[in-house]
Write a structure and sequence with these properties.
Layout (H helix, E strand, L loop, with lengths): L5 H7 L12 E5 L11 E5 H8 L12 H4 L5 H13 L4 H9 L4 H7 L22 E3 L3 E2 L6 E2 L4 E2 L3 E2 L6 E6 L2 E6 L3 E3 L2
Antiparallel strand pairs: 1-2, 3-6, 3-10, 4-5, 7-8, 8-9
Length: 188
């Protein structure tokens, strides 16, 4: 089962949009966007995901792939590549490449937005990641809709709200809703 939307899978052609690797791909929402649109997401492989989430595990040679991905026509990919080059700015090649990038003003402003490192945890303190499945531990009234999300409801393929560690997004009754993390339990 793919964690990517059909539209994101079509755009990336089932390859990581950063390093071009195949295999299991994850949707990565580029902060501070919400991920509600495929234009705010990048399809990344497990290696890129792990290294972006754990900067101390960065393998500099892996990120030579940025020589290609930084020239993508997809703004979200450009932003993510630009930011990774900034993380690697102690490397001459990365510093030089970042200095040669051309982006329109709006994309450059997005790229230079300060990142907030947030960790999302369920009611038991387990770390949540985009694509996880969670179960509601309480009946929740959904504002603006005519239903309640019932306790025990499984919410699949969640998205993390990047600027708020207390919120996730998920689909319940075919409607995308925001859910407080204190009311969910991660499925194993």
């Amino acid at each position: 089962m793919s964690l990517l939307s059909t539209e994101l899978t079509a755009r990336c052609r089932s390859k990581c949009e950063i390093c071009n690797a195949g295999g299991k791909l994850y949707p990565f929402i580029v902060f501070p966007k919400t991920g509600n649109s495929v234009d705010e997401q990048v399809a990344i492989c497990g290696v890129c995901k792990e290294q972006m989430e754990n900067v101390d595990k960065i393998d500099v040679t892996h990120w030579r792939c940025l020589n290609e991905s930084v020239w993508s026509t997809v703004p979200a990919v450009q932003v993510l590549a630009y930011r990774m080059l900034g993380t690697l700015s102690d490397q001459d090649w990365a510093h030089d490449l970042q200095g040669n990038i051309y982006m329109d003003d709006e994309t450059l402003e997005w790229a230079e937005t300060k990142m907030v490192n947030t960790v999302h945890m369920d009611c038991n303190g387990k770390i949540l990641e985009s694509g996880d499945t969670v179960v509601l531990i309480k009946d929740l009234d959904v504002k603006g809709a005519n239903f309640s999300a019932k306790r025990g409801t499984a919410v699949r393929r969640i998205l993390l709200v990047q600027d708020n560690p207390d919120q996730i997004e998920g689909r319940v009754n075919d409607q995308q809703i925001i859910i407080l993390t204190k009311y969910v339990k991660k499925s194993v």
